[in-house]
Amino acid sequence: MGLLGILLGLSLLMWLAYRGWSVLLLAPIAALIAALLSGEPLLAHWTQTFMGAAASFIGQFFPLFLLGALFGKLMEDTGAVSSIAEFMTKTLGAERAILAVVLAGAIVTYGGVSLFVALFVLAPMAEALFRAADIPRRLMPAAIALGTFTFTMMALPGTPAIQNAIPMPFFGTTPFAAPGLGIIASLIMAGFGLWWLARREKAARLAGEGFGDEPAASVDETTLRERATTTREFDPAEIAHGHVSETHPPIALAALPLVLVIVVNLLMSFVILPRLNFDFLSDPQWGAIPFSAVSGVWSVAVALTVAILATIALNWSRLSKLRETMDAGANASVLPIFSVASLVGFGAVVAALPAFNLVRDWVLSIEGGPLVSLAIATNILAALTGSASGGMTIALDALGATYLKLATEVGIDPALLHRVAVMSAGTLDSLPHSGAVVTLLAVCGSTPKKSYFDVVMVAIVGALLALIAVIALGTVFGSF
Fold first, then answer.
1. How many CB atoms lie within 10 A of CB 332?
2. Model pTM?
3. DSSP letter string over 74-140?
4. Coil, strand or helix: which one is 157?
5. End-to-end CA distance of the chain
6. How far apart are CA 166 and CA 189, in angstroms?
7. Which of 355, 382, 444, 458 is positioned for an S-S bond with 193, CB 3.0–4.6 A?
8. Mean pLDDT lowest among 60-74, 144-158, 231-245
9. What is the pLDDT of residues 204-229, one digit of tens each?
């Protein structure tokens, strides 16, 4: 009955979340159903297990959700994201429309701009370019997904994406874990995706298919918001709030905060923080934790803070309603972190049930060693929850310490575990019920029937190929 409870709770969570129900309600209900069928105490699991895990996740990662959403909103309202998109449009032109969209998305998301901010700015740019180049609208979502969902989120060294931050407390790693393997994976994802889109564009031209004049599809905004906030750190409802500047900064000023995110992150990770004394963290007052458990989060937090201050200073005249912009950015972080924290709470309850031992033993018995086992477990949970961050945290909360112990025993660098976990979370999280996919199709005015196959190829197939390559290279050569 215990295993049945776990499966029933997970199925209910997945099915109703796909139908637009709030995860804030679904996660505790699903957790309590699993506990009930296992004969476990319901109230204790709700207030102690579920809320304890959710609160721990919020305590660890709310600074990154808050700063990431705030930075994204500031970059939108100053016109910096639009300035970068316009620069890519003018530089590459309609004849390289797909490459322009991919690179624009990659630049802004690798620089720390929230995915949903990028989507709402990139979609109009992509529509104008694709219309001018007479490329079918149905290819727009895949081009944007390639630049925003894939290598900049899970592979490029130092990416400030929340998904890249989650493994750091578990494995004591930095945002730059396994940089060589990350670069190789990025090249595979970008290369495969661009090849696929070029092939599809050529086929469309040979068939005489152009951009098309059919009206853009639409989606219910409430449903869109509920699905989207379990996926990334920005509540799409706040896009409309604040005040977007009528003038855009020059490209150098627009790009400078993005550069600062990467440079400051690098300096904090390898130069500044390692030279400081944090022995006081071993005191109970500070949680009695090792420095490695917080160093990665601190590096990203400082980098985003510096970038936020630089964005305000460089664009003071463009931020005529600074308080409204700041409020919108801060508010945009609240629903996403509570949604993901609820998924984490659900996972904590499941992991505490006696029947979970069967699941753990099955996962650990998968042939291929800890890397393959970790990849499969994280992929499955990200797919079922429709959330890379939620699925990965559930997996690492339940099995992170076990994987770290196994890796130590067989000589696997924790940095390799970090990179495999992040890449695994970012593959099957792009299934149709994913909030990011639903949002992407909506802002592009397309439908799953028209566009989802190409999204699968660039965001799932390409990512799986890169993941296989990282596991193979990491197994032979170790982390580098």
1. 29
2. 0.89
3. HHHHTTHHHHHHHHHHHHH-GGGHHHHHHHHHHHHHHTT--HHHHHHHHHHHHHHHHHHHT--GGGH
4. coil
5. 45
6. 22
7. 458
8. 231-245
9. 999 999 887 665 555 555 555 555 55
Q: Are the CB atoms for 385 and 230 separated by under 8 Å?
A: yes
Q: For residue 133, what are the CA distances in angstroms to 89, 92, 118?
A: 12, 12, 22
Give the CA dihedral 95, 99, 101, 103, nearest 10 degrees: -140
Query: How distant, in Å, are the alpha carbons of 23, 56, 57 from that of 62?
Result: 18, 10, 8
Measure Cα distances from 198 to 85, 193, 195, 479 in Å: 20, 9, 5, 33
User: What are the pLDDT digits (tens) for 350-399?
Assistant: 888 888 888 788 888 888 889 999 999 898 888 877 778 888 988 898 88
Count Cβ atoms within 10 A of the Cβ of residue 185 and give its class: 0-12 exposed, 13-18 middle, 19 or more buried.
Answer: buried
Cα 181 to its chain centre, rounded Å, is 19
Q: Which of 159, 191, 151 is nearest to 177 (CA)?
A: 159
Residue 353 CA, distance from chain mean position: 28
DSSP class of 382 = H
Tokens coding 314? 């460089």
Asked if 24 and 14 touch (Cβ cutoff 8 Å), the reply is no
Helix (H, G, I), strand (E, B) or coil at 220: coil
* 210-214 contact pairs (CB < 8 A, 24+): 210/134, 210/135, 210/136, 211/130, 211/131, 211/133, 211/134, 211/135, 211/136, 211/137, 212/136, 212/137, 212/138
CB 358 within 8 A of CB 3: yes
Whether the CB-CB separation of 233 and 337 falls below 8 Å is answered with yes
Task: Say which DSSP state 274 is in.
Answer: G
Q: Which amino acid is at 50?
A: F
